[in-house]
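Before we proceed, please read the two lines closing this message. Tell me what the C-alpha cell row says about the fold.
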Amino acid sequence: MARDTDLASSQIRSDGQLNRLRLRLTAWYVLTFAIILVLLGGGLFIELQRQFSVQLSNSLKDAVTELQRAATIREMEEHASGRVVDAVDELRVPDRYLYLLSSSGRPIKPDTAAAWIQTAARAAAKGRPVLSEALVAPEVTFQLYAKRFVLKSGTELIAVAVADKVEMEDKYADLITAFSAAALFALVLVAGGGWLLMRKSTAPIEESIAHMRRFMADAAHELRTPISVARTRAEVALENPRDAATYEAALRGIASETVRIGKIVENLLTLSRADFGDEHIVRKLVYLDDVVVDAAEAARFLAAPRRIDLRVDKFEEARILGDAELVRQLILILLDNAIKFSPDGGRVSVCVGVVEGYAEVEVEDQGPGISAEHLPHIFERFFKGDVARTKTESGMNANVGQGAGLGLSIAQWIAEGQGGAITVASLPGEGARFRVRFPTISV
C-alpha cells in the first residue's frame, strides 16, 4: 500500500511537471506565431498604406486631368475663355475638391481658397506639378495635386484637386481591425491546437516515464525481499556462536537468495538491452524442431523431481531465420513456466511443426490456468495477477501469482525479435497453452 501511495504521489508530481512543460511549449509556440503575425501584418500594413497613398495620388492626378480636359472642351464650345471656369461646376468627382487658380495663385473658381492651396498653385505655376499634404486641423490632413496648363487663348491656369486623407485612414483602420480580429482568433486557435498537439506529442514521453517508474519500483520491490532474507539470515547467524551445520545452512540460504537476485538482475539487464536495442541478435538458419528437442531434454531435469511427464507430442521439421540461443531461451522459459504450474505427477506437452505456413511451437500444461481478466496482462513485466507477491526460487518464470514476472516479457521480446508472435489461451482450472509462431523459410 505504501509503495502504491508513493507511486501515486510520484505520478502526480510527474503530471504536474509535464503540464508545466506543455504550457511552456505552448506559450513558445503561440509567441512564435504571434511574432510571425506581427512581422507579416507590419509588412502588409506598410505595403497597403503605400498602395493606398499611391491610389489617392493617382486619383488626384486623374481629377486634375479631367478638370483640364473639361476646361479645354468648354473653351472650344463657348469661344470665350471667361466661361472656362464653369468647368469646375460641371465636373463632379466624388470626394474631391476642384479649384481653378491663376498663375499668381489667385482663386478663380471657386473665388476663395485656403492659403496653402494658393501657395501650392504658385509653386505649380513655375512649371512642375505639385503633390503635397497639409495638416489643417488635429487629425485632419488634406492631400493636394496642382498642375499648370495653358488654354488655346494663351491663358495660364492652375488646376488643383484636393482630397481628405480620412478616406485612406478609414480603410486603413478597417483593415487593421479586421486583421487584428483575425489574428486574435488565429492565436486562440493556435493556443488550443498547440496545447492539444503538446499533449499528443508528450504522451509517449509521459507513458515512457510512467513505465520506467513502475518498472524501477517493481524491480526494487522484487529485489528487496531476497536481499532482506539474505541479510536477515546473515544477521541471525552472527548473533551468537553457532555450530558448523548451522553456519552451512545459513550460507546455503544466502546463496539461494543471491542466485534468485542474480536471475532477476540478469533478466532486468536483458530487458533493458532489448529496450535500447543493444541486445545483439544473430540471425541464421535454425531448425526449430532441433531447438525444441534440445530445450525439452534440458527441462526434463526440472520436471523429474516432481514426476511431471514432459513429452513431445508432435515433431515435424520447421526451418526459421533467427538466433538459435535466444529461441532456445524462449522455449525453456515456456517449459519452465509450464512445469512450475503443473501439479505433481502432471503432464506438459510440446508440439512443433509447420501450421498454416508458419513454424509453430505449442507448450501446454495442466496447471490451474489463467483467469480471463489476467490474460491481456500476462506478458507485462512484473505482472503476476495478485497484489501480494508469492516468492519462488526462480526469477525467470512469470505466471499468475509466482516468480518475478519477467520471463514471459523476455519470451515475447524474443519472439517478436525473430519476426514471430506469442499468444496464450487458458481457462481457469484447465491449464494454459502458449503458442509461438515464426515465419518459415525454404532452403
